[in-house]
Amino acid sequence: MPKPPRKKWPWAVAALVALPLLVAGIAVVVVVGKAASGPCLDKAQQAPCVGPGGTWVSADGQVRPRDAVAPATTSPSIPELVAPTSTEPLLPEPAAKDYSVALSVVSKQCFGSAGCNVVVEPKLSMLGASTLLWDCDITYSISGDDSGELIETAYSQGGSSYRVDRTVMSTKSTKVAPKATVTGVSCRKP
């Protein structure tokens, strides 16, 4: 009996079927291997997280026991801020005696015997150390105006800077020199 003809290339058909199965199998092994190799219990998470046995996995991959008080979260806890305990001396609220005021004449226009129009600007200075810790309203009076005493207020911000307004006044003669004195202070903590 004659031999049946021999099939050529049977291994090629087997290779065409086996090759895609082999590639798919390798891909499944790689994906499962990566998921199983992560240190986090929830494989969808990245470190820092909770690891096996209730351990803590830090962002750098180190595993350490988790504190009993630490919450079961995926982020590290932030330490509570504690107010500093200093024995800072309490300085008293500033008073009128802690400030002085001088007037600077900005402009002056005289009208013979009718007197002068004068613009003055206060120059405040602090005398006490406690003025540095407070924001204050400094009330001062200006003498020399022909209608009487003028009351003005300046504003201090921590004793180092002042907000002042210029004052326009009329004097009875050219010989009148305006003067100012601090009469009151109202302060608050900044």
Describe the protein in words.
This protein is α+β, with helices and mostly antiparallel strands and 190 residues long. 15% of the residues lie in helices and 35% in strands. The protein has one helix and ten strands, in the order αββββββββββ. The protein has one helix at residues 10-37, and strands at 49-50, 55-57, 63-65, 99-110, 116-126, 135-143, 150-157, 161-163, 167-171, 179-188. A four-stranded antiparallel β-sheet has the order 8-7-6-10, with no helix packed on it. Strands 1-2-3 form a three-stranded antiparallel β-sheet, with no helix packed on it. A hairpin with a 4-residue loop joins strand 1 and strand 2. The longest helix is centred in the N-terminal third of the chain and has 28 residues, at 10-37. The N and C termini lie far apart (115 Å). The model has no long low-confidence stretch (mean pLDDT 77).
> Could you tell me how far the N terminus lies from the C terminus, measured between alpha carbons in angstroms?
115 Å
Strand order across the largest sheet: 8-7-6-10
Average pLDDT for all residues: 77
Task: Summarize the main sheet.
Answer: 4 strands, antiparallel
Number of strands: 10
Brief synopsis:
This protein is of the alpha+beta class. The chain is built from one helix and ten strands, in the order αββββββββββ.
